[in-house]
Amino acid sequence: MDPQQYANNYQDFNSDRSGPPEIRPEEISFEDLIGTGSFGKVYKGRCRQKAVAVKLLHKQNYDAATLTAFRKEVHLMSKIYHPNICLFMGACTIPGKCVIVTELVPKGNLETLLHDQKIQLPLYLRMRMARDAALGINWLHESNPVFVHRDIKSSNLLVDENMRVKICDFGLSALKQKHKMLKDQSSAKGTPLYMAPEVMMFKEFNESSDVYSFGIVLWEILTRKEPFSHHRELEKFREAVCVKHERPPIPADCLDSLRRLIEKCWDKDPIHRPSFKDIIAQLDQVIIDAAMNDAKGREFWKKSFLTEQEVPWEAFIDALCNWSKSPTRTQCDKNSIDYLNIKCLKAILAEQPKSEGTGVDTIVNIEKFGKILEFFGPVPEPTPGHSIMDTIREVLSHKWFHGDLDTADAASRLNGQPVGSFLIRFSSTNIGNFTISQVVADNSIKHQRVSRQASKFVYQNVVYDSLIDIVLKNGGGLNGDIKLDQNLGVPNYKFMYLFCNVSGTSQQYG
Question: Does residue 122 share a domain with residue 89?
């Protein structure tokens, strides 16, 4: 390209640009290679004293087509601002030195995280990440004109330090008017494993092609496996997907709500695929299903906080009391059992918000609520005078219950105590189970599991009705182990203070 033509293009580019200003080459330094996009490699770098991601095009000879594609990506990115879309910070458009500068998203891409089995990624967290991606894509699709990303895949979903997801790489994106169709003329654009059948067959397509791609990504997020890994030949793969309508197998234990959503997203008929607005609404349901197994717990959260993953404590307890037909904070006497129930639930469930400036002292997180229900559920049918809070209060009223305590802390609390001293805590490895930690004959500390079978408790192969039942019946004593003596329960003062000066309670520390 001759200098005058470049100068004209540069002037045109900047005359209608609404994004950040041009970045000079000397302002950018390159460090480690962190990824590869549609048109270039991505490096960790620095620009104006800020750690950034720098995308350098594969080709720097800049024929007209390459420069046009580069300018198009920069132009698109400069107009997109959303928390779930990687922030565009600027670009250098000098031929031979063209780069795009974006925010640095520290945990890399979702594909790498998913396929590293050493990384703990609970289903609840993965579904939250899927929702983040859906929010970003929905922003593109709801724009006017419509942005069609065209390369939705797990490697184009970046993960930040808070495990939130941001969409990146707009090198293949296209703009279209609402209700209009697009069509590739020479070659299908995108990544074949995630490409919609209509795109692979050179048919007209629209934003529903992104929905298909998201369906494959959703399967990958669920299974943590590579989609279509058995395929090696492109033509056979195209026939399998486009003609035989092959899709990756959904595991039998998949949540029903998630299975339905995946199948809708990758439907062979684009008309039958949901919009991202609908996908987000369905993921709200899936997230709740993933966060808790308890049927009544799910029913309560969906009715009260469908689109929220954490809520202020006051809003939560008022909603729970109304749903369970129990007196609310303002309806019950502060010396009553009902008020004590509320205090006990708050002590074991509420936590401080992780972010400052939220304006609330304590919050309830849906994931922790789901875990508490695993320990104390099932949630009973809402009836006056009978709620999950009664069960929690009854357990917390005993001095030997210590709640959320790991093995090392349990040993520390028992150290130096007489033989037979014990405490009961949540299992640190199996949600829903408990652990009895006890000082045994040689003054060592033994940790034994209490497992759950429906609403029963199994300790040393004996079935009990409750944790309290195990202690009252002096559980244990098998294989020479010391039986439980409630008088030797090690007190937990975190919960004991709740029961001071409360009238009308028959619960005694035992």
Answer: no
